[in-house]
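Researcher: Good morning. I'm working through a list of sequences from a screen, and I'd like to move beyond sequence-only analysis. For each chain I'm collecting a predicted structure so we can compare shapes side by side. This is the next one on the list. No need for commentary yet; just the structure.
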Amino acid sequence: MKKLLFIILTVCLALSFTACKKNEAKKPELPTIGIAKLISHNSLNDAEKGILDELKELNIHANIDLQNANGDLNISSAIASKFKSDNVDVAVGIATPMTVTLANQLPNTPIVFTAVTDPVKAGLASSITQGNKNITGVIDAIPIKEQLIEFKKVYDFKKLGIIYTTSETNSVSMAETTKQVCDELGVELIVQTIATPAEVKQAAESLVSRVDAFYCFTDNSIATAMSALTDTAKQNKIPVFGGDITPTLNGGVVYALGFSYYEMGRMTGRLIAEVLQGKKAEELPIQSLNDPKFYNKLLDLDTAKLLGITFSDELINSAQYLIKDGKLITK
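Model: Good morning. Structure tokens for this chain:
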């Protein structure tokens, strides 16, 4: 009798185990999202965090592969190859060079980009709102003319210096726009190009005797090595103006205007979710952060005082960020 009971229990356990295995097999596999950023600096890190937070809020359950190319295009290529080998469901490129590499190596994979300034010149889109096959995203184009007009109200510069990375299509495009705007405003633009963040300090030193102000748009090398520029400029009593808030939060940039990369990341996360839910990437219009509520001002009162620059009470009251007595004040 005991032997019979043992046999019955054994059979039941075996059947139960088999049923569990079948149930496990029926569970759908989670989609895989490959997220790759060109380099680690505050702006791109904020965009990445915004993506992750939005996906979490939308209850998107997925395997997420986070990669960082560390500013190396060879590593970018290796990351794209990995995403292709892993057959990711969506590839996300943070910054122009990273996205271009993904697009070149993953022609049949949905690609969502963020922090790309000019997707048309980068070969990612046919227009500012329409991505190429399998591509959509969020652009980070900044209003250069409006920014320079605002900056000139507080410091009437005549010779403006910019430093940018020649390998970044977005930077080349913004340099061209800056030249056009400076011509309109009667400002002489003096340019120094670089290849890596390590060259920022030397580039700044080469310009200090020829300019009376610096302007930084959204260049990844500059964002990575912002202190090299601001320290050199401060030593030579030259103001730095910024077109992106995030890299300026540690001080040194007199006046910065820009939008939130974190909010841009959240907008990107919503596009990723739509792709995972079945929409084709190319059917989703390219988006941009054009809502004024995401456009912020930063004033460094300490650096301004050192350089003899004064701000109106109205401007100070309108700023979302102030640096005073070495501390960042967020309103």
